[in-house]
Amino acid sequence: MADRGVSALSVPDDWPAHPDPILALNRMGSFDWDLDTGLMHMDAQAHEVFDVRPDEYDDHPETLAKRVPPGESRRLDTAVSQALKDGSENYGAYFRIRRRDGSLRWTHTQGYIRRDHTGRPRRIIGIVRDATPELAESDARSDEAARGEARRQQTSVVELTTAALAHARTVQDVIDVLKDTHGLTHLGATSLVMGLVEAGRIRLVAEGPADSFVPGTRITRIDEPYPMSEAVRTLGPCFIESPEEFAERYPILWPHLTGLNITSAAYLPLIVQARPIGAIGLLYSDRRGFTPEERNILVALGSSIAQSLQRAMFYEQEMDLAQGLQQAMLPRTIPSVPGADVAVRYRAATIGGSVGRDIGGDWYDLIPLPGGRVGAVIGDVQGHDTHAAAVMGQLRIVLRAYAAEGHTPATVMARASVFLHELDTDRSATCLYAEADLSTGVLQMVRAGHIDPLVRHTDGSCRRVTVPGGLPLGLSAEFGRLDYPVSTVELDPDETLLLCTDGLVEQPGADLDDGMRTLTALVDTGPDDVRDLADRLIDVAAERGGDDDVALLLLRRRGPDTPRSGRRLQRHVAPGDPAALAEARHMIRTAVGVWGARERADDIELVADELITNALMHTEGSAIVTLRTLTGSERRLRVEVEDSSSALPRRREAGESGVSGRGLLLVELLTDVWGVEARGGGKAVWCEFVVPGQD
Q: Which residues lie closer than 8 Å to 651 by C-beta, 6 or more apart?
């Protein structure tokens, strides 16, 4: 089989081939360089590579100087010398030669160094070849790589700008991103202008740098001969590729731009839903013309900016609506309260990434009540949206109505909780209601899941007032618990009551008690004036930030220049309890004597006895008798009798016995002033007597 295999092969006569034909077929020439003599022999193909005839080359490398430019020769000599010195076995280098026609051609050489037994280089055997096609392909790849890199850089312009604009929430935020130095760098522009379409005109909203504004372009018509107007008018980009083109197309604008060294510009329409909302102009000082890729990139950039502007416009519109709703839900004005200084503040939350959600359900209110009393309310409906604000508004109104009807604080809170539950919403609310009698300084407070109030004393110290509370509003009705215990606190003259929502207290990473201690310390060191103190607390909340809104109410009871109570006594008289009635009479007689009103003791005791008797006879419940003194421009003694009947007293003619029906006549005759106040499901009949002397 071996013989048959060998005979079957047709072996050429010149096989194997000599190296010279192989080198020639690959357009390579060879050389043999004797380093001792300095002679370098080259074959015919090497002559062709160097473009020299055999008679022009005398085996001395120096003869090739006319083909190898000096700079290339030095670079080649350096490569060879370095290889000889560092003991390398070979070297390679690209260099250019100048052909007979003067053109330059890339050449590559590869040399193999032969050394003797001592390591001394004696001979270099190598090849040379025409490297022009190879480097041409490499140059083409480099050019393509450069173009790809340029495309990536241009694409990154859109990506970087879009990323920066993603955090812009308002139109001004968009403008700030584009005007920022880094923004201009990303865009590759020297300066920019941007205008928004308003009522058929273009209003300039941004220009940069600061000295690039062109007079007369603040507001322009869409039909005027300006590039921005053209972009808006045609809904297409306007590219200007040279100063000459700029001067020719826009002779009115160009003279104002000559100082900026502008060489080209791109004006892009900002289009949203096929409608122009504005235009942006990018002006360059280091380029002329735009490639198709660059034009596409800039158009995409304009689209990205337009989307950001639309999002910002929607945000501002929703913010205007939300803030308008918020302001409509909060009290428009705070009434002036005799005997008190009041300050209220509200700060909207800033919810990152929540467009149109910088409002919430926090509220405050101040409710004037009969008898010089006032109701102070602070509350927080769950959520940060327009629905929370709407629920807050309804809750504020009904709570005000219940308080104005004269209900006790516990009843006001319980009815508000039932109302919120029946409102058929998924929101709950916390609330604190304080009813203050500024003449006596007595505060009656109820709390529905809200944080405790603070009281600042006359020496500047501040303390947290612990108020037992019930469930948040809207939940107590659901769970069948409407118990809101009432806490009584006395507020001395020049002391301040502070009510706030948890946005002023809560801090990231800290519990509520730590927040209350921090707030107490702030109040301790705060200014005396309630308005200044309120400003400081809100400023601190703004500096701290946070994702919750803040409502704040400060009420400071004024000093001795306002009517105040020297004494206050109260007695509960149950029906069918003669002993309680006798004790009430004894309390009145004793108090009148001790308080220096003996001259009117009989009148006061008689009127009080009449009011108590009427309350017990004409109602089914008990009576609450309150006796107190008021000091002001004149000293007064006030008697109040509260019952559970909402029926108001009325005059009646005396009966046959000559006694019944004379009660109100007696009250009018003996008192200096009297009246009736609604108190929830009942009423309070009160009267005052001017009495001489001091406490």
A: 661, 664, 665
